[in-house]
Amino acid sequence: RAASWLHLARSVARRVERQAWRLVEQEGTDAVNPLALTYLNRLSDLCFVWARLANDGGRADRLWKPCDNC
Q: Domain residues for 20?
């Protein structure tokens, strides 16, 4: 359960990072602090690592299979 919440947090951090980069593309580099972009990127990485550690309780990660329900 903790791993799923951490993966959700990671996806939100990635979404915010993409929006910040869009703002940079539209408004220029002064629109967003470069350290904020780095922070958002590292935050999503950290959430991913934490999610993997949370799953390390004897259960394997559920891998996505593109045709699992075909």
A: 2-54
Q: Which segments of 1-70 does DSSP mark as H helices, in order?
A: 2-27, 34-54
Residue 67, domain member (yes or no)? no
**pLDDT per position in the chain (70 positions), as tens?**
888 999 999 999 999 999 999 999 999 989 999 999 999 999 999 999 999 888 876 667 677 788 756 6
For the record, the structure tokens of 53 come out as 């550690």
Domain count for the chain, please give it. 1
Residues contacting residue 54 through CB under 8 Å, at least 6 positions apart? 2, 3, 6
Give domain status of residue 45, yes or no: yes
User: 36 in a domain, yes or no?
Assistant: yes
User: CA gyration radius for the chain?
Assistant: 16
